[in-house]
Design brief:
alpha+beta; about 90 residues; single chain; about 20% helix; about 30% strand; 6-stranded mixed beta sheet
Length: about 90
């Protein structure tokens, strides 16, 4: 069974929440514009989330049914640590 992924969005940006273990195979392709907190990586929407979704599903079309969006006016994600592959 494939996990459901959540795009956390605020008025300025969005991040796809992915378990750290699923980012391991592509960790060298993820930028420092993404964030980490606990057991999750929050992949920024412009590049990093796309890298993951194509890696995982092969296309955006196939990924659609596994991604939902959660909107908030203010998110704590920007306060998390920047992504660093050495800390996965």
């Amino acid at each position: 069974m494939t996990e459901q992924y959540i795009f956390f969005a605020d008025p300025g940006h969005a991040w796809l929440r992915v378990p750290k273990k699923e980012v391991m195979p592509i960790k060298d392709k993820i930028s420092s514009y993404s964030y980490m907190n606990g057991k999750y990586v929050y992949l920024e929407e412009d590049c990093d989330a796309s890298v993951f979704l194509i890696h995982k599903f092969g296309s955006f079309e196939k990924a659609k049914s596994f991604v939902t969006e959660k909107y908030t006016e203010k998110t704590a994600i920007r306060d998390y640590n920047n992504f660093n592959p050495d800390f996965l």
